[in-house]
Amino acid sequence: MSRPARAQGVAVAVTAPALMVFTALVAIGLTGGLSPLGIEGLPDPGDLTRVGLPTVQVLRDLAAMITVGVLVITVTCVGPGTGVEPRALGATRARLVAYAQLGATVWSLSSLALVAFVYSDASGTPVGAPGFMTEAAFFALEYELGQYGLWSAALAAAVAVGCVISTRLGGAGITTVMALVALWPIALTGHAAGTLNHDEAVNLQLFHLVGISVWLGGLVGVILVRRLGGTCLSLRPVGTPPSPVGASCS
Asked: pLDDT tens, 123-146?
């Protein structure tokens, strides 16, 4: 990859998440979500939580989507390269797994930060207040909402480790399955998790997360394959039927 192309890729990688965060904050601001509660007797979590909570959630969701999509594309659609053993990763697939490892790391760290912001928002305790860390740790260990956040962080960390130690296609495949499983705690804390038919709603939420992660994250993976000079075996001419992966997500 040439230096200008690399610089352009870095610019896109920085600008796209920033634009998504900005859009989310504008939408929340227009609905009054960034304004203080202004209700006497109710504690206020502070400006840091009002801005940090949606920001971290967007970053967590984006990192999860990219991690899952890039891994799925890597193990199902990318060839090993010329002169490389089919079961070996090869240069392109190894780079893609490295990108997925970066995404999983961001996914794990943002999940941990999200636990703190969720507790701050729910309790009305500003981040950094005296005793905040102790109270947030108790929330994470003793309450289901906090436990789901910890599970999300732990599973994403396991995916990151799996990416680091994967040297062959089989290991990357196992890591891909782990990444798909790691979407489960996100489904448990989604907007549908509190509905009357809880189990059905969570299952539908999980299917939605898997589909959108494979589809949109996979598009990111295809772009990365092209930029790395690799070959995506599933790309077809315009007008032909979609691949099985694409059809399952549409």
From this structure: 888 888 898 999 999 999 998 889
pTM of the model: 0.79
Those residues whose C-beta lies under 8 Å from the C-beta of residue 21, and which sit 6 or more positions away, are 54, 55, 58, 59
pLDDT 10s digits, 11-68:
555 666 677 666 766 766 656 666 666 555 567 788 888 888 888 998 999 999 999 9
CA atoms within 13 A on the CB side of 156: 31
39: its two tokens: 């209700």
Whole-angstrom Cα distance, residue 53 to residue 123? 13
Q: If 0-12 CB within 10 Å is exposed, 13-18 middle and 19+ buried, where does residue 194 land?
A: exposed
Q: Where are the domains of the chain?
A: 50-80+112-234
Among the residues of the chain, which ranges form H helices?
Answer: 3-30, 47-77, 90-123, 132-142, 144-165, 169-181, 184-188, 198-228, 244-249
